[in-house]
Amino acid sequence: MRTLWIKLLLWGYAVFSMAPLVVMVLSSFRPTSEIFDEPIGLPTGSAFDNYAKAWTEASFSTYVVNSVIVVVSAVLLGAVVSLLAAYPLGRRRFGGRGLLTAYFISGMTLPAHLGVLPLFYLLESMGLVDSLLGLILVYAAGSIPFNVFVLTAFFRQLPYELDEAASLDGAGPLATFWHVMLPLVRPAIATVIVFQFVPLWNDFFYPLVLMRDESKLTLPVGLTHFFGEFQNDWGTLFAGLVMTTIPLVVLFVLATRQIVAGLTAGMNR
Amino acid sequence: MALSTTRRGSSYLFLIPAFVLYSLFVVYPLFTGLTYSVFSWKGTLRDTFVGFANYAGLLTESFRDQLLPALGHNFLLFAGTMLVQNTLGLAFALALSRVRRGKRALQTMFALPYLVNPLVIGYLWTLLLSPTFGPVNSLLRGVGLEGLAMPWLGDPATALPTVIVITTWQWVGFPMLLFSAALGGIPQEYAEAARTDGATSWQVFRRITLPLLRPAMATITILSFIGSMNTFALVYALGGSNGAPAGATDVLGLLFYRAAFASGDVNALGTSSALAVFMFTFIFGSTLLLERVLRRRT
């Protein structure tokens, strides 16, 4: 009897949890006039009109392309430089190793937003305000602390015989890194890539401050413009919301394991 | 010997790209931000060294009247998160530990909203809660709860509680997953032994389960605190940069944004930098304090 109540409660909440997202998806396939007549309902007829409108008229195509360029480049750049740094930090002995590790990892606790004004003027002096490259560099740099933290720990776990064997075979540091280490840390690379993707895809604050030019906007700030412009066109608004959300859901479905690994790595800090 | 020196040199070579990128775009702006706060500014031109005058400026009447309510709202969000979201998260984790079939499906459904961009969540709920065409109010009217069909986000009295509900809806999966993991780590034998000694299930929960969940609670409390203090995108989408209605949802993040970019003050850089430093010191200090209090062994 009690278990039945518990189940009822849990499934009840599950409905509450899913309902707003279901309404969002259903409404994105309905014409605005129908939504206003009947706020909750099933899609009818011309299903993709809203998407077509958001994609072309509301410049979602621009926002999406910018977001993809910025996030993919930043995640890859951040992962590459962090991998290069984590390798000596995790595996080799040299002066200042502890200090440098602390220097990189302390960035995880620093409030990045504190530096946003100087960052703006720094980018301005480099001609990188309103530039996708500027945003890529900022994001890549911001991802370094977490990446170095996860990757250094991972490098440290690999057996030390590997380096010895490689150097006995005459491999230099770069060859050891490339041929021996890189294939072994592949799961950790997947973790950092997946884990950085989500917050960068969602990031709103930096582009809000650093980007002005409509043609350079990424999705989140684009979304705020879009909401001002299409206020009364709810069907199109819902379609825009769905388009902003879909890439993350796809990523989640494809990479649940890496996300969970990244979450736990971040939690134990 | 020769080998080890070449190795040593190359270690630094590996570090250069990350070092340059991180120092230039993260560390340098942060420290410059600190120095910004002790100068007065004429637009983007640095004027004179003023010591703590910008900090004192945060306490002048006109600014204080924005700062204190915003800070208060951050605290209410934290309290709401603890009371509603984290309590529910614990309840769900406990309930789920008694369910076998459909457990994974339930967990996924509870956790799904936190994948969605807070900005999208904010806009989605403004549409859902719209007084005229929103499905929430039409649903309430449909089931005869006319009295509850109201502008939840438009009324200053209900706006902040509504933000707490929305935050809970988005994040409840997070404490749930953490508590579930912690519960899974508690050996069954403890509860069984207590029950053979005649303990009721409430006693088992109160005396065994709850104390063993302390580390998980500490983690969740600290993360909730940081999250509540730094909230920005969600409230921006719900109430714009002024924290509408009538500043009822104004928070520190929005105040900083306005002070830096929308105040029209010549000394905007000085004031907003002082505010940023204050926010950081306050949040970081409180986090350290929380960490000490919550992780103290009893």
TrEMBL record, chain A:
- Subcellular location(s) per record: Cell membrane
InterPro entries membership: MetI-like, MetI-like_sf
Q: Keyword annotations for this protein?
A: Cell membrane, Membrane, Transmembrane, Transmembrane helix, Transport
- Name a single GO biological process: transmembrane transport
Q: Name one GO cellular component term.
A: plasma membrane
Q: Where are the transmembrane segments?
A: 9-29, 63-87, 99-121, 133-155, 176-198, 234-255
Q: How does it sit in the membrane?
A: Multi-pass membrane protein
| Entries under CDD domains matching the protein | TM_PBP2
Show the Pfam families listed in the entry.
BPD_transp_1 (PF00528)
Provide the ABC transmembrane type-1 domain boundaries. 64-255
The family note in this entry says: Belongs to the binding-protein-dependent transport system permease family.
The protein's name is: Raffinose/stachyose/melibiose transport system permease protein
TrEMBL record, chain B:
* Main location, first listed in the record: membrane
* One of the GO BP terms on file: transmembrane transport
Report what the protein is called. Raffinose/stachyose/melibiose transport system permease protein
In the record, what lineage is assigned to the organism producing the protein? Answer: Bacteria, Bacillati, Actinomycetota, Actinomycetes, Streptosporangiales
Describe its membrane topology. Answer: Multi-pass membrane protein
- Assigned keywords, A-Z: Cell membrane, Membrane, Transmembrane, Transmembrane helix, Transport
What CDD domains does the annotation carry? TM_PBP2
Asked if the keyword Transport belongs to this entry, the reply reads: yes
GO cellular component, as recorded: plasma membrane
Keyword Zinc included in the entry's annotation = no
Protein source organism: Nonomuraea dietziae
The record's annotation in InterPro entries points to:
MetI-like, MetI-like_sf, UgpAE/MalFG_permease
Annotated membrane-spanning segments are 12-31, 75-96, 108-128, 159-179, 216-238, 268-290
Q: Which family does it belong to?
A: Belongs to the binding-protein-dependent transport system permease family.
Superkingdom of the organism of origin: Bacteria
Q: Cross-referenced Pfam families, in alphabetical order? A: BPD_transp_1
